[in-house]
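User: Working on a comparison across species. This one is Receptor ligand binding region domain-containing protein from Hypsibius exemplaris. Can you predict its structure so I can line it up against the others?
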Amino acid sequence: MRIVPQLVAWFLIVSGCGAIVNVEIISILPLDFGVASALIWTAPAFEVAVEAANKRYATFLNFSVVLMYNASDRTCEDVSGDAVRNVSEYYYTKTNSDTVYAIVSSSWDWVLFSNALAQDTFLDDELTPTAIAVGGTFHGYSTMIINVLLNFGWFHISVLLQTNAFSPFYANIFGSLVAQGAVNASNRTFFINSCTFLPNTKSMADALDNAKQRSRVVIILAPAKIALELLVFINVQPLQQSEFGNISLFSQPRAQNLKAFRAFLFMSYRASGHELQDLNDKIVNRAKAMFRAEATGYTADSPPLDSFATQASYDLVDMLAQVVNESLPFHAPGSGWSGTMLATRMSNRTFKGLTAGDLYVTPEGERCLDMDIYGFSTASLSMKARLKKLKHRRLPLVHLATGIFHLPLSRLSTGEAGMATRSQGLNNYWSRLLCKQQLGLSQRQVEESTQHLDYIRPADANTRPGTSKHAASARP
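Assistant: Here's the predicted structure for Receptor ligand binding region domain-containing protein from Hypsibius exemplaris:
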């Protein structure tokens, strides 16, 4: 038997006990290791969700949670070693013949949850056949970026990646984005120019110099503070001003610096805001009861459910309870519960009526995170959320405040990027076709978003380029 430890995972045991089904969730997350999925942040949400599930399904289900952690663990190696030992010991000493078990191998049939943003390899039909990425994946983030590019007809882009950020978050998105772009490149769908940089003046200037000779569309994968500093180089160089390093400029930019924001889109995980205030308050109160109040770090401007790891921790209990409850009429008492069956029932569906809102899980088991896109508002002179609850499957049209009422070309008209050749004309044709067929836009919307493009209709207009697909195959 082979156990593949997953640092940010929840393990599930379901067993029958008379008329009530006991659902036991085992966490191998560390207490505190500087990441959003640590128990100091997620355990309160998890316990509040368990209590809510027990109230809702009182006569059918009984939820409980087991937190397996060593308070001294601080590294991934420490956590992985303890997880394998603790879960193995639990398997051999705490299980019973009425329950079917599995972690991440075909020998143990438990559902495996990830409540943090998971690597694309987390969803693997052989290594993790029962995995559900409730916290989303890097593939999901890169797919959202590609959807935006498709929507605007931007097929020639430059990606700037900060290489020494505290978290590998941006590097992982970069790898997934480039991989998807490479798949599409053979079909003349995407052309990606990539460049890395360090957060210093010379490195950023060199990276932008490389990008501006090749593309008009630049994707910045870096913390917001660094993105703002890059805007200085793009818009107001050489008059660099220190105030651009302040994140408050997103909502309160100085009038003389507004030019820096007019062609800027900011994509972010959709925060709950004050829509779930009562639930946020319950989680905060539980956090204070479980840990020191000052250790939680929650504030009025940063409530618990604004963290995707915390919301995913709550959501996974909610969706699991719904699936187990739906499965009761088809389950024979004493036959055990299959994690594979439960994972299959969780996949390729939209969960309605969940406490924190509806969510969609792909056939591969990936939860699609809702995203917001912020654009500059000429009316309020501030960054506003242009799109709420951006979905993977359909992207409404967004109008940028360019002042010329249409979107910029993704390639330069002269210079190294090349003039509008027949290849570019074909690319622009696919821009219109993909906007219409893949994104479901109306003909009027397509014409509005691509009216500035010169395009050439290919000989075979009925054959369109292939699109990027997740590496994992659909569940049987």
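For your comparison, note: The mean pLDDT is 70.

User: Helpful, thanks.
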